[in-house]
């Protein structure tokens, strides 16, 4: 099976939602301000976050708008997003369970439609066209791309970096050498060519901004374990009855790498691509 032959199914991130808050590093603290300044946002208008997951980007950007809608097909992700919104005291956020391909007309119009590492899981030409119908005439599509489960590779850190190569080998020992994704496989990874898709759907790239605070985070063993389980390629359901054995081996590997249980990682630079129809 090739990446193009892969089909989405609802188990893609099954069991991963609760691990995001523990295992994923936050976006750069300056990301919201950078988006605000680049788009000229003034606290009015509406935001739609498509494939919002547990609301990591949704809740960061929601204060820039009068109201926000987050959509995702995973019930666990939406439950976690709602919990985090309540915890943050954000009331003007609505969560709807649906796939991007089924975005309905009753959602209304939006100043900004955002995707954060979610577009590649979708029927991209269809979704790109559908979103055009939901954007205000002066609206923006933004794609936020960043790796938040692991940090950038740097030479000097206060504590050892998590041994991601060894972790990958352990995952492969349990799940096989070909990347898993839901009930299928992605031997070639997720599809590329986003710019061609967007231009084919009638969008023009306005600009690209890059945000990098350079922060270094201390990471516990629990955080690294949750980072692994937050990934589609090592979501808890994929291990079946072998999940406890895998976690035991994973924790032993991490204990060996950092006997005091302390790791460090530097956040990854976050890029935002801005499109207009």
UniProtKB/TrEMBL annotation:
GO terms for molecular function: methyltransferase activity. Keywords: Methyltransferase, Transferase. Residues 48-139 form the Methyltransferase domain. It comes from the Bacteria. SUPFAM superfamilies: S-adenosyl-L-methionine-dependent methyltransferases. Pfam families: Methyltransf_25. The keyword Methyltransferase applies. One of its GO terms (biological process) is methylation. PANTHER family: METHYLTRANSF_11 DOMAIN-CONTAINING PROTEIN, METHYLTRANSFERASE TYPE 11 DOMAIN-CONTAINING PROTEIN. This is Methyltransferase. It comes from Glycomyces algeriensis. The lineage of its organism: Bacteria, Bacillati, Actinomycetota, Actinomycetes, Glycomycetales.
